[in-house]
Amino acid sequence: MLPAVSENFHDSRASSAASRWPWPVCLLGLSLLLSACETAAPPSNLPPSESDLVLLKSTALCAAKSDFLKTHPASTLKTQAWGNGQELLLPADRSPSHGDESYFFDEDGILVGTLFTFPAGLDLNPYPVLRTTLTLLKPSLEFYLNVANLSSKTSMESSSLYETGDEKTTTQYLVLGSREEPSLLQASVTIDPYVRLFSPYRREFLERLRQPRGQKPGQQLDSQGAEDKEPFLSLQQFARGQTAQLSYCGSQNYEIAAAAYQKAIASGFTNKVWQAEAHHKLGLAWEGKGQHEKAKKELLQSLAIRPNAPEILNNLGTVYSKLGEKANALASFEKAVILRPNYAIARYNLAEAYAPTNPKRAISEYETYLALVEGVPEEAGRIALVKQRVAALKH
Predict the structure, then answer these.
(1) CB neighbours of 309 closer than 8 A, spacing ≥ 6?
(2) Where exactly are the structural domains of the chain?
(3) Can you tell me the distance from the alpha carbon of 118 to that of 209, in angstroms, rounded to the nearest whole number?
(4) 98: which DSSP letter?
(5) Cα angle at 315 between 314 and 318, to 5 degrees?
(6) Could you say which residues of the chain have pLDDT below 50?
(7) d(Cα 336, Cα 308) in Å, to the nearest integer?
(8) Are 144 and 33 in contact (CB under 8 A)?
(9) Which of 4, 213, 325, 358 stands 20 to 30 A from 97 (CA)?
(10) How remote is the C-alpha of 167 from its chain's centroid?
(11) Pick from 172, 171, 187, 169: which is nearest to 249 by CA?
């Protein structure tokens, strides 16, 4: 019998822009931003290399801080805390671009994101490749922005956020003005789990553009409307867990993943979906470490918060299978496919659970799985094995 399969996902460039902004999609803010509404944007397959902004290629994501400092002398950088990590800042007066260059490292000393900020706006006329790339993208977010130091002296202008990237990274451009006369305010490159921390919904990034005189770090600004209110430390640790668990930077590391998810939970998400997902991912980390009782406990906690989540049910069924709790496994897989009839991996797991005692039902579920994954290259190996299983059961 083939093993039951837990399902865990990389963020994908095939997902829509809306999936990257899962909470509020409209903003009405007076101090930071005004009348910002997300627009539907189709996925883009443009790689982040489609830019002639050389600074965006100045260092590689996932680099160790020790290696980074070999090419960026510490004497030229300002160091400041970034949650549980660290931001190394090359100020505009020392930067070749005359913009602030920020490099963000997690607590393990891994570079997870870069941000280039141009408070006065960077004229994009000298960058034809980037301008062409922007014309091929649709904005994932549009809003009015109040920027204090614009060279145009305009107090408020329409701005657009453009996203592109590859399988594991996201590049974002925050652009002001018309398509004919674009001006770049911010550009960031991050590994996907961290992209939420580099969004206009995070007040701390737009504050870099405003730079109000006398503003103390961390001081609250009066604003109206929706913004990302999830605790920064929780989001940061969740992203760290995803990075380790899904092998974004090197090999899979369930030890770091489990520790990070536990810290994320301890910091306290406010939204129940985030609470449930943190317990869910922690359960998967424990499963990866072979600690199935701990995995079961976390997955049951996740289901207590979100009772009808098919992925959690499927993964709990897999853990039950590994613990030898066959009846519970079968019930979990059954509920998962009832909630999502086209859930291919749960169908496969359900077939496996039925195979020893109900071959006829197992064949039916295997065939449903095969119909759902037809033509999916990633499932080719399992498809071949399932066809062998079906042939054996029929005889």
Answers:
(1) 276, 280, 302, 303
(2) 17-210
(3) 7
(4) S
(5) 90
(6) 9-44, 212-226
(7) 8
(8) yes
(9) 213
(10) 11
(11) 169
Q: How far apart are the first and last CA of the chain?
A: 16
pLDDT at 59: 73
Is residue 368 helix, strand or coil?
A: helix
Coil, helix or strand at residue 215 = coil
Cα gap 238→267, rounded to integer Å: 10
- Counting beta carbons within 10 angstroms of the beta carbon of residue 289, is it exposed (0 to 12), middle (13 to 18) or buried (19 or more)? middle
Listed residue (177, 185, 223, 179) closest to 201, CA to CA = 223
What's the rounded Cα separation, in Å, for the pair 166 and 32? 30
State the Cα–Cα distance between residues 328 and 349, nearest whole angstrom.
13
Give the list of residues 6+ apart from residue 215 with CB closer than 8 angstroms, or none. 207, 221
What pTM does this model have? 0.84
The two three-digit tokens of residue 37, written as one number: 């509404």
